[in-house]
Amino acid sequence: MNKIQQILGLGKLKLTVSDWCLLALPAAVWFSYQPLIEFGRSENMYFELSIALLGLLFFALTSIPQLWRARRQIFQNKFCWLAISFALWNLLTLIWSGNQLRGLLTAGVVWLLLAAFLRIITHPKIHQLLPALTKIFIASAAVVSLLAWLQMLLDIVGLPMETTLICVGCQFEYFGFPRAVGFAIEPQFLGSLLLAPILLLVVQTYKKTAPFWHNLLTGFLLITFFMTLSRGAIYALVIGLVVLLAINHKKLKQNLQTIGLTITCFIISLAAQGTMVAINPSVNENFAQGVAKSLHHLSLGTLDFRQSARPLEPNILLTDEVETAKSPDVYFDGYVAESTDARLSFNELAYDAWKSSPTVVLFGAGLGSAGVAMHQTHPDQIGQLEITQNQYTEIPLELGIVGFALFLSLLIVFFYKTSNKKWTWALALAFLAQWIFFSGYPNAIHIYLIFFLLLMVPENQLKKPPKSD
């Protein structure tokens, strides 16, 4: 343990079990889906447990003694009371939830996140721990990215999913090249995980001259990020970078470097995708077709450089139920409109379910009951297992205007408290943009933890190297 502390620059700090659990979280969050402990399923939910959830559980449980000692500090903090009120409202809505078991488990995750939040903002040594947490998170990003590349190469070779742990819909049979997924449930969550380390590395280039290895690491993570082919994650990154460029509008040189590096990495990722298509003997397409297909998909069908477009099979969707087989042809010839259409459809169904009665509008259908509520409103269009795929529609549907108001209040206070360190807004707005494309907690624990830690970053955190005690 002493050696690890020395490596992390924490040699003189006395670390508790809770501190070690906190230091383990930046590595644990990368394992949000694989390996997975499965306990079966019911008609309206799956019972699963990941390393990320276990890491959060251990941190929350080991923090209880410290939280008890900090109770006066917590009770005197209005922001703490706002967070507690949101968690209490989640718990209260279980009374009228149409899916109480799912709601109860979801409430459990919310309260674990609350415990993590309270521990982080009351931790007396959090500023000394922040540099180590950042190191671990960025190092984990590099390791998982390397494994994601290995995963993609093994998929091209033809190893089965059970060996590669690549997700359904990420295999080369779909686009002609595999997509980076790591240990997440789907590429957009690996992209979400990579958002923070990429933006943190870019932020540091505005504070001091970055060494060669820094730019090399940033470029490697960016290329891996673009290999996810996740539009939601990529659009979110663009928003985060635009915010950084705007904040640093007077630093023309660094802005040009940021833009140049991002565009170069995007081009390299396209070349990698095209090369994977060209060298794969199981795919009857060439380099140009692979690149054109990627551009067509990312641009929502706007950029069409394909030689000949063939109609997509209407029943092929990126879901767990799709069975794949090697074929000289691939499933998708470009932009997968079904993915976008399904999300838009879920939003419409969620809105219909939310406005079904004044009670639901005000108080929600109850935590965990989004799928049930949508199914009851449109039983012929959606099953009870589905979710809204949009955090901004799921919260009003399940928690009503009351819950959504509390949620927005938390975000408003966050931006107020970070107004003197606006670079944090780049990360926050990137995540807020990505919330349009998914909903729920288990695969997005990292987002909440990053929000908590950003609150505690001192104003000069990135202006000069932190001193270790």
Please provide a written account of the structure.
The chain is mainly alpha-helical and 469 residues long. 63% of the residues lie in helices and 3% in strands. It has a two-stranded antiparallel sheet with strand order 1-2. The C terminus is likely disordered.
* Radius of gyration using CA atoms only: 22 Å
Computed structural class: mainly alpha
Largest sheet: 2 strands, antiparallel
Order of helices and strands: HHEEHHHHHHHHHHHHHHHHHHH
What is the overall shape?
globular
| Biggest β-sheet: strands ordered side by side in the sheet | 1-2
**N- and C-termini, Cα separation:** 17 Å
Helical content stands at: 55-70%
Low-confidence spans: pLDDT under 50, at least 5 residues? 309-328, 461-469
Counted beta strands: 2
Strand content of the residues, in percent? under 5%
Q: Oligomerization state of this entry? A: single chain
SSE diagram, text form:
Layout: H1 2-7, H2 17-28, E1 36-42, E2 45-50, H3 51-62, H4 64-69, H5 71-75, H6 78-92, H7 100-122, H8 126-157, H9 161-164, H10 172-175, H11 187-207, H12 212-226, H13 231-247, H14 252-279, H15 287-298, H16 337-354, H17 358-363, H18 370-377, H19 391-417, H20 423-434, H21 445-456
Antiparallel strand pairs: 1-2
Helix pairs in contact: 2-3, 2-8, 3-7, 6-7, 6-19, 7-21, 8-11, 8-12, 11-12, 11-13, 11-20, 12-14, 13-20, 14-15, 16-18, 16-19
